[in-house]
Structure formats: C-alpha cells, structure tokens
C-alpha cells in the first residue's frame, strides 16, 4: 500500500474511533445521563458493581411460580408497580381513553372535549379569574420552561431562580439559552432558600421574574409558595411569580388566585395521572399583559404565545382552531383523569397524599434511614428522597426491588447521586383504596435492604 493510501486509511480509522468514543463531545445534562452514571460509577469514575448477594435456597416449583407472577393491580397487563416520581401508575379508565378512535383535531366533538379539559384545569389550579388562561400543548414539562423564557422575559432581562436541586440548574440553563440573565439563590442540599434571603436578593436588584420549583424531583424538597408570593408582592410587586409545579400539581395544594401566582407549569404524567406527552400551564392575566407588552417578538416559534394564545382561547370557547396538531388521544386521557380528580373535593385529595407521605416517611425513620429533606416543612407529599445506609448504593437495591415487583428511582442530584434513591407516591397508587402499592413498596424496600446486608 502506498504511503498516501496508508495515511488515508489511518485517518478513516481515527475518524471511526472518534464516533465510537464512549464519552460524548458535550457533557450530557439530562436526568437519564446523571442517573445512569450514578448507578455505574463512583465519585472517582471507577465502575461500581452490585454487591454479590447471599444465595438463598431455591423455593419449591409451585412457590417459585407464585413469587415470579406479578400481582394483578388492575385490568392492565401484570407489571411491576411504578413508584418513581413520575411517570406514575395510571388508572384503567385513563388508559382506556387513549384508545379513542381517530378524529379530526378541529372537529366539533374533539373541540368540545378540549374545551372541557381547559375549564377543568381552572378548577384544578383553583382559579376563577377570566383573565387567566390555561394552556395544553403537546410536549413535556420542559416545554413549560421554554414558554416562560421565550414569552415572559426578553434577552438581557434579569430573573431570580430559587435553587432546591437539579431542576433549578436546568431552568437556569433554559433562560440562558434565550439570552436571559439568571441569578440562582441556592440552599444546602435538602433545604430551601429562606424568606429573609429572598427578600434581601429582591431588594438588591430589579428582577422581572422569580422562579421556584414547588417540589424538586431530585431532592424531594417542598417549597412554600403562599408566603413566597406574599413576600414578592410586598417587596417587588412588578416581579412575576413563576412556579415549576411539574412534580407538585395534583399532589400538593395550589391556589392560583388566592396566592396571586402568575404561572404554574406542569406535565401530564405525574400527580395529574395521565400518560406523558402534554405540557400544561396556568397563566395569570398579569402575565399575559406582560407578554403583550413585549418590545421584541417571542424567541421561540413553536412555544410562542403569539401562536398559542388565540388557539387556547378558541378551544375553550368551543371554536375550532389550528396552529399545530394537538394529541387527541392524550387530551381524551387528560379529560378522564381531570374528571376523576374533580369528582372528589380537592382538599381530600391533598389529605390522602399527605397521609400516604407520612406513612412512607415513618417507615423510612423506622428503618433508621434519613431523608434528603430533613425538616418536616421541606418534605414533599408526592415523593420521598431516601439516603441509603453507608456502604449501600442504588445498584445494590434497585435491581432487587425490581425482582420483587417494585420500581424506585435512583439518585438524581449530581453531588450525591450514588447515595440515595427516590420513592414516588402520588396519584392512583395513593387515592385508590383497592391498591396496596405503597404498603407493598415499603415492605419490599425493607426486604431489599436486608438482602443487601443492612440491619435496621
């Protein structure tokens, strides 16, 4: 082979090798990448392997078959109970709604359904103000961040982001993508910024907006929204109050009008109990006026309220309208879920979640374990983030839980991802008295920890 030919072949091999490099060119900033690496590598980057478990005598054939057969929780195909902080388990009727026949997204039957969904969202968020506006757009909760950053602030504007975990970092990244200047006010892991710290920050600089993660899915920290909003309206009344409620709507109390909130954004697959795929928001009249007063056009096309606001207003008024195709089947599922939620007093729903949460947290304490959110006032009602015993990591526990028919989530906060797991307890697993998801999960957690060598 000629020298030039050999050099060319070598260059091609190097190029292929680069594509096969296990490390990405840019660091992944996703929950999946963090969760994945936390399960397989320690803090120094060394591969972690699950501890070998003591081999137990094989059960008799009949007993073994019974152990391996998942219990039927509903009319769905038998499956492990999904008890992560979202997606959650779904009610049969909600899933049945997904099998609705195909229909036109501008046909009157679907438009009527969408109208009901938007009206029922007002009830869920507890707003009767006709100036406020619900939005339902195909996408995830992250699309809510995009809408806020693209529509309510402009490049160069200042926003204050209250930090209680991973998702404040991501919201900050979203703002900076749109040229907005985001300042984070951080708290120690498991805690939240205190009101006096927030007041000090608001007096030091003029912020167009303050954002707070109601429940940070990475830490299980619950933020106080009512007192925060009162503070902002007193100290910096022109600052919009934006709540990331992805992991709180449906399991935590939210009073949109009474608490004078400007935006609450969420997604379909958590406390609302609907399959993933819908970005849901409630927006105040004050925020809509701020949008209309923009000096520059929105910095997103798909997420622009210039396109979506008239569509939502028309759908709610039962008028066919079109900008981008919605998901009729998901909207039908959301319709069913909202009707189920609103069939009982909301206060009872929130009380049910609190009771389930207290049950989980008592079990955690009885096991001699600690939560990331150590203070009771910081503890979410829809999930619990649990520190594992010293020397035990998520790969030692999660696969064993799966074998026992329960799915928990690994750690997500980058600084401590290998030290804890997350237990989601919201929606039908809490509100359906026929289901024993929570009780069974607590029992299986105890067993899995014992299998890993932990003695409570």
Automatic annotation (TrEMBL):
UniProt keyword list: Aminotransferase, Pyridoxal phosphate, Transferase
EC number, UniProt record: 2.6.1.44
Biased composition (Basic and acidic residues): 36-71
PROSITE patterns: AA_TRANSFER_CLASS_5 (PS00595)
One term of GO molecular function: alanine-glyoxylate transaminase activity
GO cellular component: peroxisome
InterPro entries: Aminotrans_V_dom, Aminotrans_V_PyrdxlP_BS, PyrdxlP-dep_Trfase, PyrdxlP-dep_Trfase_major, PyrdxlP-dep_Trfase_small
Residue numbers spanned by region Disordered: 1-81
Domain Aminotransferase class V residue range list: 99-413
UniProt KW RNA-binding keyword: no
Pfam families registered for this protein in UniProt: Aminotran_5
Tagged with keyword Aminoacyl-tRNA synthetase: no
Any one biological process term the GO annotation gives: glycine biosynthetic process, by transamination of glyoxylate
Domain of life: Eukaryota
Membership in a protein family: Belongs to the class-V pyridoxal-phosphate-dependent aminotransferase family.
Descriptive protein name: alanine--glyoxylate transaminase
Organism, scientific name: Ampelomyces quisqualis
